[in-house]
Amino acid sequence: MITFILKRFLSGIVLLFVVASGTFFIAHIAIPNPALGLLGSGATPEAIDALTAKIGADRPMLTQYQDWLLQLLRGDFGDSWKNGQPIAKLLGIRLPVTLSLVVASVALSALLGAVLGTLAGLRPHSWIDKAVQGASVVLFALPGFWVAVVLVMTFAVQFKLFPAIGYVPLTESAPGWLRSITLPAVSLALGAIVMIAEQLRNAIIAADSQDYVRTLRSRGLPFWRVSLHLLRNSAPASLTVLALMFVGLLSGAIIVEQVFGIKGLGELTQSASQNGDIPTLLGITVVTVVFVVIVNLLLDIVLGWINPKVRVK
Fold first, then answer.
1. Comparing 13 with 301, which gets the higher pLDDT?
2. What does the pLDDT read at residue 279?
3. What is the tens place of the pLDDT at every residue in 195-231?
């Protein structure tokens, strides 16, 4: 098991290096003159040249890459080109907000998706099974932005049950945090709920036709005992989908944060992209990939614990 975890960890390090390096070169190619974006179209050529030299964007790209990589290895993300603040400080403020939203969405997706998928899989062709499949088709077709706007207009504007915009930190007020995070988390989680439910339903139905299930039933085991065995063998597929959903929800948070006026990584990413703030974009990319690697590593550990066959010797 230790070898299995070590290999997964090393592959995560390689992934982090490749993605971060690729983002560095793509960002510099896509934004060839970052000083223009930082100063605006009304800036004079002299001001642009001065800022270009100040931020070091006039140096060869490979030299910039080497300096950035060595700086990153020291745990230093550098300073923002836009406001001069340390990027680590900016991420420390924005990251907890986005993680709070994503974790709440993942928890909601896992809970409701597991319940609906289990009920639909254990009772195929029942009304709840048909409802889950119908909801899957509808929710997959609905744009996330539209769903978020509808939730705001209905539950915030019309019924006034939740705030329309803003975010309350959990450390400041737990009830306030729950009210501020509910609508954004629901709008993010709806698609993930039906995807997890559909995946778990299909896995349970497939496992239910296996010989070991018929053997368990022939031995007279109660329904709930058989169901536990079915869930144990169906869980890996759903956990994989859940891990993929975490990555997707990180991306979807950019749109949701704009709708609900939440100042998280989404707003920071948009601002950095518009201003040509490449160091901030790189810091966001590195932090995001780190969390993706952590989630995938945890997924591999859980899957290896559930099913020893997936362990790599």
1. 13
2. 94
3. 888 889 998 898 888 888 888 888 888 887 888 878 8
Q: Do residues 182 and 162 lie in contact, with contact meaning Cβ atoms separated by under 8 Å? A: yes
Residue 308 is given by DSSP the state: G
CB 182 within 8 A of CB 174: no
pLDDT above 90 for 88: yes
The distance of Cα 121 from the centroid of its chain, to the nearest Å, equals: 27
Choose the CATH number for 92-263 among 3.40.50.2300, 3.90.1300.10, 3.40.50.970, 1.10.3720.10: 1.10.3720.10
The CA distance from 287 to 77, in Å, is: 10
Measuring CA to CA, how many Å separate 94 from each of 86, 90, 131, 184, 265? 13, 6, 38, 16, 5
> Cβ(132)–Cβ(116) under 8 Å?
yes
